[in-house]
Write a structure and sequence with these properties.
By secondary structure, the protein is α/β, with parallel strands linked by helices. The protein contains seven helices and twelve strands. The strands form two sheets. Strands 3-2-1-4-5-12 form a six-stranded parallel β-sheet, with helices on both faces. Strands 6-11-10-7-8-9 form a six-stranded parallel β-sheet, sandwiched between helices. The chain is elongated. Bound molecules: NADP nicotinamide-adenine-dinucleotide phosphate.
Length: 254
């Protein structure tokens, strides 16, 4: 059996694992950073937590005799993607990168693209407004620098360190989020502006479509630079790329 390690934390990683789980010729493990308290159920065995940088991951690839490494991590998880590229080269293991395409603006979108959360705080401006922060719970701290705004914060797990601002509301939720529900949420909280990542995919696009329908501005954090490696954009193509990468090993009778 060929051994596949999927670096996950995304819907696509789970879908890919589901596709590969039925294959009798493959032993698949999914690796999660362990950020969420109640991770989604996965169709293959899961390992949790970091490897200790690129060398740690390279050592793991060798020790677990991994035949193909799949980087199906979140587009903003740049460190693990860089580590995956370095580790695959160090351990001489083929790498398949599954990269979710970014959203692109369409007519009616009012996007303000910024480099990072500090840029997002500046983009909100000085006048008090009602802000929907659709960011990870580890990313909201910089908004304490703009306490004049009212914040609606949505995260997968409850926020452990609330923002030091006078007016913030915290809700939890895990996608997918439908556009109609997002519109209702934005209307209920009378949101003026959204801060979000350009995650791509359909699961979290509802708020972008809802903002367009309501004429709201969206402050979008630009995607971080990722290593220049050959990449595919769909689960289907990832399966094909894995099979292609495995062909020499299969020929050797692995
Ligand atoms: P990161 O900055 O790329 O990774 C930081 C470290 O976490 C890595 O160096 C690695 O530790 C460990 N790690 C990350 N993904 C891993 C995986 N799949 N398996 C094992 N270890 C993993 O990523 P991040 O800190 O998790 O998040 C950065 C951004 O991505 C945030 O904006 C976050 O909201 C977004 N995001 C991440 C995930 C996710 O699953 N990681 C999911 C959704 C969104 P070692 O160096 O020790 O190996």
């Amino acid at each position: 059996m060929a051994r596949i390690l999927i670096l996950g934390g995304t819907t696509e990683a789970r879908q890919l694992a589901g596709r590969l789980a039925t294959r009798p010729d493959l032993a698949v493990t999914l690796s999660l950073a362990g950020r969420t308290m109640t991770p989604a159920l996965q169709p293959v065995p899961v390992r949790l937590g970091g490897f200790g940088g690129s060398q740690g991951l390279a050592d793991h690839l060798a020790a677990a005799r991994i035949d193909v490494l799949v980087d199906a991590t979140h587009p903003y998880a740049a460190t693990i993607s860089a580590n995956a590229a370095r580790a695959a080269a160090l351990a001489k293991v083929p790498l398949v990168a599954l990269r979710r395409p970014a959203w692109t603006a369409v007519a009616g979108d009012r996007w303000i693209e910024v480099a990072d959360t500090t840029g997002a705080v500046a983009a909100l401006g000085a006048a008090p407004c009602r802000v929907f922060l659709a960011l990870g719970r580890q990313e909201i701290a910089p908004f304490a620098a703009a306490p004049q705004h009212r914040y609606l914060v949505r995260s997968v797990d409850p926020i452990d360190s609330p923002l030091d601002v006078p007016d913030a509301v915290y809700i939890t939720g895990r996608g997918p989020f439908a556009e109609t529900d997002e519109r209702a949420l934005l209307a209920q909280h009378r949101i003026d502006i959204i801060v979000a990542k350009n995650s791509g995919g359909s699961a979290t696009y509802g708020k972008i479509a809802a903002a367009r329908a309501l004429g709201l501005a969206v402050v979008l954090l630009r995607r971080p630079a990722l290593p220049q490696v050959a990449a595919v954009e769909t689960v289907e193509d990832a399966v094909a790329a894995i099979d292609h990468a495995l062909a020499p090993a299969m020929a050797r009778g692995v």
